[in-house]
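Tutorial, part two.
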Amino acid sequence: MKKIQKSKKGFTLVEMVLVIAIIVILAAVLVLGIGTYLNKAKAASSSIQAHNSSISIVNSEIEAAMS
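Running the prediction step on this input gives:
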């Protein structure tokens, strides 16, 4: 009797589902992380704008006092 060897071509369904699940989990972690950094960036931008506005007001008051 000859042994028939099956050549394994491609992936099984379980392997494909596992890879897709891992990719989905990594994408979810990435999206949540990006959201956190975007919120921090918006807060920092608002703080910088407020600071620049206050400097502008002080500068205009100084210029008005010197005139």
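Helices lie at 13-66. In part three we will examine how such features are distributed along the chain.
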